[in-house]
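User: Hello, can you help with two protein structures?

Assistant: Certainly.
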Amino acid sequence: MEKSAIWVVGLCLVLAGHGFEAEASHQSKPTEQPYRTGYHFQPPKNWMNDPNGPMYFNGVYHFFYQYNPYSALWGNLTWGHSISYDLVNWVHLEHALNPTDPFDINGVYSGSATILPEGKPVILYTGLDSKSRELQNLAVPKNVSDPFLREWIKSPHNPLITATNEIDEYNFRDPTTAWQGPDKAWRILVGGLINGRGTVLLYQSRDFVNWTMSQTPFHSSNKTGMWECPDFYPVSISSKDGIETSVQNADTKHVLKISFQDNGNDYYIMGKYVPETDTYLVETDFFDEVSDSRYDYGIFYASKTFFDAAKKRRILWAWIKESDSLSAAVEKGWSGIQSIPRSVLLDQTGRRLVQWPIKEIRELRENQVTFFNKDLKGGTVIEVPGTITASQADVELSFDFPHFKEAEVLDPIWVDPQLLCSQKNASVKGGIGPFGLLVLASKDLTEQTAIFFRIFATHNEKYIVLMCSDQSRSSLRQDVNKTSYGAFVDIDPLHEKISLRSLIDHSIVESFGGEGRTCITARVYPELAINEEAHLYVFNNGTQSVKISRFDAWSMRKAEMVLRIEEDSQLMSS
């Protein structure tokens, strides 16, 4: 019996032992839903956006998310709730929070979970009142001994925090996970807008009910509009372990992540948090450098981390929105997926974060194809042999180079990597590159999504690596966004191999360059290259040969998504 089947049987027994029946989700015909993912998190139907309040509590992972129970379009926001033992296979539970009270009647917006020292989880979230003002509210489990935390009660003290002074009451949302300072008082950040400046505001409380705002914003900028979905957490300078949110010492840096509503991207900065004064001393501020720091340079928004105490790691989630039309979402009956959970660490240089898919995802691998030391001459396109299911796969490979004589010289005006990837897409021949993968490709390559690298030489005898995800030929459809994405990779090809990992899942491609130093996520909607008609290739469209030092690819089994028995038995599988 496969591990996934064992997992479902065991989980159903556990669920039955705690008071409700469940069943595995029913599988629709692949031709009916060619873009629905096989191993990414999705609810059975309807709209989903921001990840909310992920946590690990008493042996169970909880994942909450913005959800519309009635439509595949945005609106009627509630908190969906699912649980897992491995962050891969999931059980969908009843909604955790619904818009039923005066302080959230127009929507239960994003928020975070905190586990208090006495072992009690709590949720802080934003609610929209009848005038659409944004208010901060508290919810607690009805029965903390319930291992699935199925029912949540809103505090009679709600709303706990309202906009005051110059804070825009219609742009004041998304409280963070709380942390404790040396004085044992709790702190949170809330995103906001003050006189057109994006900002995060700090609040303190000793009882988690009565909150006092700091006299000055925790951090702000006049370069942006509304700051939403803030996240604030420590990373270790010397260890590969994640650390709990309240840790503050000389061996930590603190990450501040903001989702910028202006451009729909997530950015982060790092610095030193001084808990005694609640000040944040940033190393490089938002947009102070040409090369900005982002978790992901593709489609990746409203991200949220949590500390996994069981495995001493920090896990990152993000909403991956659709790139096709609203009418297509209605026809599919769903919209929005979540990224594969990623571990987050500070890299060895201390300059940026690195991300990698959680180890548990490897349990879905099967039908491995491996080869070594394969030369790719210029103009070469080779289909990956074997029994790989190219529409649902995990691919890892690394490249070596005999020399760098043919590297193009980097023009000093080429400072925008996304623009450079658009101008020099996969069909534009170069010196060293483009080389990489063609995924979700049709047999005749009419449709293809190219994930590739180029190496440029600088005038001071150094080399720059560009990573691109080129969707320009991803689909014959005209109602999809085919924007290409790109970023430079902080790697020296003279001293280390260039590596690539791509997770391919029907309509999403998550790619990790340089062992997670640069990440790009894309949504694609091919007409020809779907299910069994999808193919996987390696290619080199540069003049110089490159060598694949190692190549590994696997088909990926479907993750298990278990529905409560009360759900419509005709729902499609995720």
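That covers the first. Now for the second protein you mentioned:
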Amino acid sequence: MIRKGVINYQSNSLLSFLKKCRTLNQLKQIHAHLLKSHLPGNPFAIGRLLSLAATSNNPSFFSHACLIFQNLSHRNIFIYNSMIRGYVLSQAPVRAILCYLNMLNYGFSANNYTFPPLIMACNILGSTSKLIGCLVHAHVVTSGFDEDPFVVSALIELYSLNYDMGTARTLFDRIPKRDVVLWTAMVDGYGKMGDIENARTLFEEMPERNAISWSAIMAAYSRVGDFKEVLCLFRRMQEAGIKPNESVLVSILTACANLGALAQGLWIHSYAKLCSFDSNTILATALVDMYSKCGCVDSALSTFHGIPSKDAGAWNAMISGVAMNGDARKSLELFNDMVSNGTQPTETTFVAVLTACTHARLVKEGLKLFEQMSSNYGVEPQLEHYGCLVDLMARAGMLTEAEKFIEEKMGGLGRGDANVWGALLGACRTYGNIEVGNRVWRKLTDMGVADCGSHVLSYNLYKESGRDMEAKRVRRLISEAGMKKKPGCSIIEVDGAVEVFLAGDLSHSQAPEICRTLDSLFNIGSLENYNGA
């Protein structure tokens, strides 16, 4: 009894040291103290050390945890759960599952803390995710945890990630007592599937909501591009007195960026500073994106430079930001800084820099970067990168070269998409190259392509070059196929409120007044032109 008290006292003292542990040497010193104190035979004492090392997100700590685990003669369920979590956090799902099987072979039974990280391991397995997940689900049922809210929540996420919301809904409906975690998991699952109707229905039925629930429904609307509704939900959340978390703020900033709602974005930035959220890399990256899309490049750069540990996402946002604001040279400069700082460029990085080169007509630089993608940086070009290069050459008037690139490097127009076809046809129209444009159009019609944008570009190309017969033929195809061009859209922000206007849309409550005002402005403009003449 006395020995147990001493062990508990020493373990509690070590726990306070473990919380302050920052380096591997400090961790090893505490481990050595445990060995000298004859505590290693007690799995409760060593368990706390192993748990901290395994789940710290520190690779050296985790390696030490693995060494400790391999040499332990006495283990318990807490130690196994810690190692399973550690393997998942280290993106080693197979080892997490093998650790679970080893635990069963060792004679231990799983508890409710075992299954959530184990199911998470299934989520990151890839192609076998659902198969292994179903086997784990069977273990959940036989172990008697099929009504545990945290376990069921993890299963709902598993099935939603595998686009099986039917099974997820069955699990949800069977639970007699559903807490906010379960409700939120379902809302998030439907949101990730793009099923806004079911996500919103469940959200409105929730008996209680927390910040994570609001974040899930906002993210759902953000995914489908309904950014105005994201801001409306945020106002409702504020009225409900719920304090936003970092995920909510990221969704709001994404909405502000896409709507050009600078005033709202500035308020979010101030709030983030007040709550010390601005040190969060993901949130800071969203701020960079918001300022860039609102045209405030200096504020974007200031925020970017204030990020202490910049990941590829932060670099990509800033490179894209200066590119969309017309400073291609700055984009290339930032790309070089990114590489110099040891950050690996991603597919998104190259889309950003190639787009920058396209708009500045830096053909030589763009072609060089494209060639270096796989050879220097190990990034294989995707369709979007090929599209950027076609656009780069086409805008520079290199239409024959662009057409040759599509045939030789991409395997023909059939391997392209609307962006590739549109880039080439648009340039043919700009430069009046009816020869290349005609060849491209005939190949697209032979392929049975029904892209409205390509048809409209071809119609304009023929019409402007005086080839009325071909223009009428394209026009007839557009009508027969019932194609409709996506209407133009403009967005304004007035007193913190965002208004969206679509071309030809008269559904706005003040549409008649707006039309009368526009007519008056046109009349004034016509009068000034007449007087000037």
